[in-house]
Amino acid sequence: MGETLVSVDELDAAAAEAELRQLAEKIAFHDARYYNDDAPEISDADYDVLRRRNLAIEQKFPKLVRDDSPSQHVGYVVLDKFEKAAHALPMLSLDNAFNDEDVRDFAKRALRILKLAGDKVLSLTAEPKIDGLSLSLRYEGGVLQTAVTRGDGSVGENVTENARTIADIPNVLSGENIPDVVEIRGEVFMTHEAFAKLNERMKEEGKAEYVNPRNTAAGSLRQLDSAVTASRPLKFFAYAWGEMSAMPSDTQMGMVAQMADWGFQVNPLMAVFDSIEPLIEHFHRIETERVSLAYDIDGVVYKVNDLALQARLGFVSRFPRWAIAHKFPAEKAWTILRNIEIQVGRTGALTPVARLEPITVGGVVVTTATLHNQDYVAGIGKDGEEIRSGKDLRIGDRVQIQRAGDVIPQILDVDLEYRDASSKPFEYPEICPACGSHAVREINEKTGKTDSVRRCSGGLICPAQVKERLKHLVSRNAFDIEGFGEKQVESFYDAGLVANAADIFTLRKRDAHSLKKLKDREGMGALSAAKLFDAIDDKRKIDLHRLLFGLGIRHVGQQTAKDMARVYRDATVISDAMQAMDGQHSEAWLELTAIDGIGDTVAASLQEFFRESGNVKVFEALLEELEPIAPEIAQTDSPVAGKTIVFTGSLEQMTRDEAKAMAERAGARVSGSVSIKTDLVVAGPGAGSKLKKAVELGVDTVDEDGWFELIGRDKNL
Ligand code: IVH
Q1: In terms of Cα–Cα distance, which of 315, 241, 355, 328 is closest to 658?
Q2: Ligand 1 binding pocket mutation candidate from 98, 187, 296 (most atoms within 8 A of CB)
Q3: Of 122, 538, 622, 713, which is most buried by a Cβ count within 10 Å?
Q4: pTM
């Protein structure tokens, strides 16, 4: 290369334009040597210098970006792995409606929460739900900075180089009034035509064909070599946004129109409706047109059009209350039920699984179906009602299955004419197949009903339960230990090396004193053993919520674990608080259930887990080995961050849920009872004993207006 380049800061527009032209030519020339001839003339490092220079000039002169600029299309990079990247605002999921009635309920609920009368107009948008994968694109100064997959909603994978190869994703936004920060979210997908062509090519090359366009699109976006992504014709529809330094519109429709002006493809079937029935008609129209569309869709998404109303509706857990996905009915097919297997889960639940004669439904080969529980196999639903018209399931039956999206297939019906006269009802085991303990159906004290799930009573002596718990502990959303997956759990447990969670973290220490070393085990070797020990050590510092989720306590999912971590902030505090629970009236129980999203079911399950001394022992032993990391306080600049707040009395400007969510988003902890630890009581009209107690204890009190003054009017913060 050798030539000295003028610093980008010193370039004027004319010089920049000329250099961008030269760079486009040069890079195209070297791409051709590399990709077409397999004979590169310059080193990768020198090639990168050219591309970086091109990008740097484009960032300074976004208006000069050429149509044939390398940044606009091919930009092939080979990575070792994708970097993780946090989303500035979480990428949420959508709640589902499975029929017209669910949609009417959704609208009614929104009106109720907004305290609008039932005859008030609630404007809703409707647009196809694209069956692809979502991607968040961040633009600064109008130039694409990062493209990050949804991941777990908080953290995804940085696939920027691959996204640059997608023609529908502009590298530089066009049009006027572009805010400094623009995050566009939408769906990456593959058309039926592109998918068919790709599969033809695979067939010709004697390679395995792809299953469906969605998985292929996902696989294509996650290629480490972006040349491969570029060779797959992916498309992108924009439909949502994340962080925006300024909002160009105050409606959903306006925002999408703006995205189109900035150079994105938006779905032409999007429309807005002022009442529910025409909206539902639109759904059925799209349902009929579905087969003739160039791409897969699996439903229609409705969103409240007015963004101020969206903000007021807010979120519950991972779902916005201002949007819902109306799903198309699932696809169906008939096949043979070959076997019913019983699996024992981490909480001891015996779960029957159907092994089916493989059959293709909606382009996917189905071999298993979920059977839920004993009653389900017998043809009895949750509330004692009949399912499959009360027909039981027997091995050898001809059954109708249905599959919707990525959901595990279900068995809808049984063909009784096909059933052999000698067939017998399935005998559900009353003994755990893994440990031989009694498997029982408990009676719910509250309802007096028999639990639908039969559970192994073996607890920590049941190898299946212990193994499943360990598998959960090392899984992706918990400890995510590299090289320590289900296979290792099985083999280390069977060898007596790991019998509980804490054992994983003492493995290195014990191995040092052991005669039979890990490196000598079959398939191991010194290098893999050392790597595994390092991978375990890497996870000694662990996010508190991952640790909590990793314990595998019934009903404690990722969101609940995050909520608890945010509020309690310390593992020992959690352990003490959980052990202090003693029924629904105990202080510890009330404190726990005061957390937004945590109810009595979760509390009961946590109480049960921490009552078992074996569990507490393992948890304590685990804490000896770990350094849990408390979550960052959400908004340190908020005046209520880190404070404990109690809401009491009737609130008039917000619902109790809204109030809780607002406070928690501002980094506060919401409690149900006033004590010496309370920092602030927000009292609405009619506040009684709690307000009195606050005054007695000298705790600060404010009314609703005072609360808004303190925290700001924006309910969505
Ligand atoms: S809106 C906060 N609109 O569906 C709401 N999602 O089931 C953000 N999807 O993760 C999503 N088409 O990947 C929205 N027109 C559309 C969509 C859409 C497909 C996907 C998206 C999302 C998933 C939720």
Answers
A1: 315
A2: 187
A3: 622
A4: 0.51
